[in-house]
Amino acid sequence: MDSARTKPIDQLTEAEAVQELTALADEIAAHDIRYYQEDAPTVSDADYDALKQRNAAVEQRFPHLVRDNSPSLRVGAARSEQFAPVEHGVPMLSLDNAFSDEDALEFDARVKRFLRLDGEVAYTAEPKIDGLSASVLYRDGRLVRAATRGDGRVGEDVTENIRTIGDIPHKLSGSGWPSEIEIRGEVYLGAEEFAALNAAAEAAGQRTYANPRNAAAGSLRQIDSKITAQRPLRFFAYAWGLFSTPFAETQWEALQMLKAWGFQVTPQSRRVEGVEGLLEAYRYMEAERPKLGFDIDGVVYKVDRLDWQQRLGFVSRAPRWGIARKFPAQQARTVLEAIDIQVGRTGALTPVARLQPVTVGGVVVTNATLHNADEIARLDVRIGDTVILQRAGDVIPQILSIIPEERPADAEPYDFPHLCPCPLKTEVVRETTASGAETVVRRCSGEFACPFQKLAHLRHFVSRRAFDIEGLGEKQLTLFSERGWLNSPADIFRLHEKRDELLALDRFGETSVRNLLDGIEARREIALERFVYGLGIRHVGETTSLALARHFETAEAFVATARAAADQTAGSLYAELSDLEGLGPTALAAVLDFARSRPALLIPASASLEEHLRLAIPRLNARARTALAERFGDWASFEAAAAQALAQTPGEAFQELASIGTVGVVAARMIAAFFAEDHNRAMVDSLLGELRVIPAEKPKSDTAVAGKTVVFTGALERMTRDEAKAQAERLGAKVSGSVSKKTDLVVAGPGAGSKLKDAEKHGVQVISEEEWLALIGG
Length: 778
Ligand SMILES: [Zn+2]
What we know:
This protein is an alpha+beta fold. It has 31 helices and 26 strands. The model has no long low-confidence stretch (mean pLDDT 86). The structure holds zinc ion. Zinc ion is lined by residues 343, 420, 422, 424, 426, 444, 446, 450, 452. It holds the Pfam family HHH_2. The active site is at residue 128.
């Protein structure tokens, strides 16, 4: 960074300002090319915005120095030569940015000043989609041409590519559309689709995209529209350019028209009043952001009345009637000071980055997850490196990349520990799945001998949703296991034998020891689902534990089947097929049935594997056929694999486990693996020797809510969410976390948000907590 760049603007000499503006223009132009033409930016949006802001500030102080090619006079960059130029009927301009509540207040004040209004102004507040703007021209309701924004005046002709996007109608529906109109909106890629696209590119050894926006831009700007067609691009319409006849009086009305003509408009958009409304809409969009499934980078405010928009007009290149309120940067750079290793309950070693504190999206961040050794190797992150940190919603912050130029000369590659940091110093091994494949997870091979694992395991065992034993916190557990009193969960129930030793400890008086032992005694009777959950088997969470408890009813029945399943685990190919994404249980059964019966078939030799599958196994759906075709490639490989998988079909006990409610093959394999270990069986036996496990209650089938799917949302006043859930389930209802068309009932308390909207959308009945209690007679 040169000296001028860091110098406060009010201290720049005129000569320095000239130099600075030249440098900024070059730098911004270079970024624009990487961003707009190569879809491969090298700086964060925040850094880019900072350059533009500095340029604008220098120009403001030295207005006579504004260059002809000033970045502030341009929107976007020149188009690429690959596409034919298209002149927009009306230029595609971008909005000015706002970064704070004050900016929003100022915007509202400016609008009112200009229009000489006293009352509140109505605005629309729309999510600012982080994609690629496009303009689609319709004549007599038919799509005739589509263009990217380009430099705002002339864009690139991407008509053929735009035609491949499902959200963009080739023919407008409804009525009332002008005979000629340019529809404008954003081409974007959903978060899941982006991840899948990058995963596929990575697997194929191709270049990956930095973010969904670049992926959308790269996908839309393909020379071959067949490639674009394979990308799951989407489109939200929100504006228009040229139009032959007026069709709406307000922005809000116009959005409804766009919808009626067959476009998607963002469901989060709202019409708001005055400055209060603007600020409230911003908070709402901020809260919705992590749940949307696509990237937004702010909120767009527009004056609702189109005649007022007209009066407000433009100042230089941006409209006066609208503004883009941007979210604070979700990325920041900081220095990685250390990498710590944490050992979890299952012995997995998780590296955690310790960072120089930095504010990201309004929150101070000091740690970030590094996931695993492979991730450290992939990032090539070293202690002392400057890193780019990302925080998205409530997710744990993660490190996106490092800045190689800023690496200290003495930084050495990180050596992932080969020994567990526990006092045992046992060897660290790569975790394998039940089918024998290596995973990215490294774990301590010490199992229960590893004190870190033992502690994490005991912590889980006494946690609130498992045995819920008060007075046994981390400190006590550590102390007692150091003394050798706690080696396995069963030892907790033998702590009373150590009463005298406990009393001899510092800070353990008569009362606290009595309370502790009483607390433990109270848990000698335990519900089966808590017992199962407390075992801490991987992939066996609360829901799965409950399903197991309901199915087996007694601990003995569960343990007997789990032990039997331990000898019947599915073979690797069977396991792989049952895990194959796109191949559900029904499709797997169809494949195995086929392998069993081997019907004689007359299928043309030229048939692709997908066609062959369609003819040979009609019960397979398209998704399953694609999944199998991608995995096996040709018929002979598939046939051989199906036969092998059939031979590897697990035994009855295993299948019973896997078929229970939410358990599934993955958790069943974990249960089988758990009970295959001698020390685990001994641990369970010894624990059962101490306990009376209360058989699970079968859910009732004769209540008003039996068999119904219920969603609780908002604050409940008479009971906690957990209680409500447990009670509903006892009464035979299914409790779900999200509203879909399968939901029967939404119980909404104060503060219910998006789920209420979903209920409306799906026409699901909504009742209050009182009405719910009346319904169940509680
Ligand atoms: Zn260890």
